[in-house]
Amino acid sequence: MRVVTALLLTISYLYANADNNCILTEGLPQPTNGLNFCRKYTKNACCYPPHDLELEQALRTLLDTGDSCRIADIRDHPMSILYCLPCSPEQPKFVRDGKVYLCQSWVDRAFGSGKTLYKAHNLNTCGVLVSSPCVNVNETEIPNRDRYVCGDDYVFPNEGMSVETFLNSERSIGPLGLSVEDNYTFVVVNSTVNCFNSAETVQLNFLFVIAVAAATLIFLAEFTNAENLLTVFD
C-alpha cells in the first residue's frame, strides 16, 4: 500500500509540474479571488481578476456592432470561450512556440464549418469592430498602444472563411495576451492532444489510467494478503 501511495504522489507531482508558466501571470495556475467573465476558471486560473475584466471589456468592444447584433449574455457567445483562453489552467499545454492550437472538433461545435461558418452567431452580417493602429506623422506605427485608442473599423468574414484565417486576419481579433498583436498565431489542428479544448480530456484520461493502475495494484496486494492468510490456516 505504501508503494502505491508513493507511486501516485510521484506521478502527480511530475504531472503537475510538467507545464510551463501561464502567459499572463508568469506563474503556475492557482485559485484566484473570483472571476466574473471567465468564472469557470476561478478555482484554478492562469489569470487574475484585473485580466478577467480587461478580457471582458475587450470582447464587448469587439462585438459592439449594433443593438440587433447583441446577445443577452456575452458569455454565451463562442468568442467568449476564445477570450477566456488566457485564463484557462490548461493554457500552457496548447500554447507553444508562438502558436495557439485549437482543436478542429471544438471549432466546428462553436462556429460551424464551410459556408455556414459564423452564420449561427451573426458574424456574417454583424462582423466585428477591430482596432486601428496608432501612427505618427510619418505613418509609422507607434508600438505599445492600447486597443481602440486611435480608432476602429468594422471587419466582416468572407463567405466560407475558416476560423483560423479569420482569427489571424486582424491583429486585434484574438484575446489579449494571445493575439496576433502579441505575436501569436492561431492554428486549427485535427488532433486529440495538446490543443484547446482537448487538454482537459487528456488530463482526465491520464488520471483515469493512474486510478485504474492504482486500484489494480491495491487489489493484487489485498488478494496476495488473503492468499497468505489462507495458507496460514491450511
Q: How would you describe this structure to a colleague?
A:
By secondary structure, the protein is mainly alpha-helical. The chain has one domain (2-233). The protein is 40% helix and 9% strand. It contains eight helices and five strands; from the N terminus they run ααααββααββαβα. It has helices at residues 2-16, 49-62, 78-83, 91-94, 104-111, 123-126, 163-169, 199-233; strands spanning 95-96, 99-103, 128-131, 152-155, 185-189. It has a three-stranded mixed sheet with strand order 1-2-5. A two-stranded antiparallel ribbon has the order 3-4. A hairpin with a 2-residue loop joins strand 1 (95-96) and strand 2. The longest helix is centred in the last third of the chain and has 35 residues, at 199-233. The two termini are 26 Å apart. Mean pLDDT is 76; it is low at 1-18 and 199-220.
Sum this structure up briefly.
With 234 residues, this protein is mainly α.
Q: Which helices and strands appear, and what pairs or packs with what?
A:
Layout: H1 2-16, H2 49-62, H3 78-83, H4 91-94, E1 95-96, E2 99-103, H5 104-111, H6 123-126, E3 128-131, E4 152-155, H7 163-169, E5 185-189, H8 199-233
Parallel strand pairs: 2-5
Antiparallel strand pairs: 1-2, 3-4
Mean pLDDT: 76
Q: Helix and strand string, N-terminal first?
A: HHHHEEHHEEHEH
Beta-strand fraction estimate: 5-15%
- How far apart lie the N and C ends? 26 Å
Global morphology:
globular
Stretches where pLDDT falls below 50 for ≥5 residues?
Answer: 1-18, 199-220
Q: Structural class of the helix and strand makeup?
A: mainly alpha
- What is the tally of beta strands? 5
Total domain count? 1
What is the C-alpha radius of gyration, as a whole number of Å? 23 Å
* Proportion of helical residues: 25-40%
The major beta sheet can be summarized as: 3 strands, mixed
Largest sheet: spatial strand order: 1-2-5
Tally of individual helices: 8
